[in-house]
Write a structure and sequence with these properties.
The protein is an alpha/beta fold. It contains seven helices and seven strands. It is globular and about 50 Å long. The N and C termini lie far apart (49 Å).
Length: 248
């Protein structure tokens, strides 16, 4: 009898790094549940790529910053797949604001999307992890170590994710669930498409490997953290930045 595939949920899976993660995990034999917010067409294109290669995937519309929306999506996912073996919290938003430009609405938006969503997803997925354990991978940023002008709010929300990652690793370790985060630097996605050319060139020049990241660079690291091979790694935020960031 052929074993049932492991099930992975990928938030923000319709575009950018999230799409690359979904495709990578599916290529390794996992069935993938993609959560997206608005772009149904982009989600369908990811499904076509996965299914065209013989993989199994479904897409679910949800606002991960809204607890009720997360709960409804999780109900549908479990009805379809039965359990959750890996959860990748990739959904996020980047809004550059200086201190003078921050207000209550922008602070709430950053933390709701980048931080609260992780709590909602983990809380609702946790009851459906099998007894053998599983994998949770969150998304932080290299900017938590070296924030630049205007990135303070974004970096703070992602630093909270890294702290939460470490805390959840301790809490969920006895259940055999590892919890890690990846911290990319500038990566070629639509989120960074508007980056001024001079800034892009400066990042490339400062990166030992001489380029900005590609979604697949990060997806490969996520795939490792979501696999059995990462069984002895937990509570860590892994810089996936081509050597750009100096962190202690």
């Amino acid at each position: 009898m052929q074993a049932s595939p492991r099930i992975a949920i990928v938030t923000g899976g319709s575009r950018g790094i999230g799409a690359a993660v979904a495709v990578k995990l599916a290529s390794q034999g996992l069935a993938v549940a993609i959560i997206y917010q608005h772009n149904a067409q982009a989600a369908e294109q990811v499904l076509e790529r996965i299914r065209g290669a013989g993989g199994v995937a479904e897409a679910y519309a949800a606002d991960v910053s809204d607890e009720a929306s997360v709960k409804a999506a999780m109900t549908r996912i479990v009805e379809r797949f039965g359990q959750v073996d890996a959860l990748v919290n990739c959904a996020g938003m980047l809004e550059m604001r200086t201190l003078a430009e921050m207000d209550a609405a922008s602070v709430a938006r950053a933390f709701n999307v980048n931080f609260n969503s992780v709590i909602y997803m983990v809380q609702n997925a946790l009851p459906h992890f099998p007894l053998r354990g599983g994998r949770i991978v969150n998304f932080s940023t290299n900017l938590i170590y070296q924030p630049r002008l205007g990135s303070g709010l974004y970096a703070a929300s992602k630093a909270a994710v890294s702290v939460l990652t470490n805390a959840l690793a301790k809490e969920l370790g006895p259940r055999g669930i590892t919890v890690n985060a990846v911290a990319p630097s500038m990566t070629r996605t639509d989120m960074t498409a508007a980056t001024p050319p001079a800034r892009r060139e400066a990042v490339m020049a400062a990166t030992p490997l001489g380029r900005i990241g590609e979604p697949e660079d990060v997806a490969d690291v996520v795939a490792f953290l979501a696999s059995d091979e990462s069984r002895w790694v937990t509570g860590r935020t892994l810089l996936t930045d081509g050597g750009l960031t100096d962190a202690l």
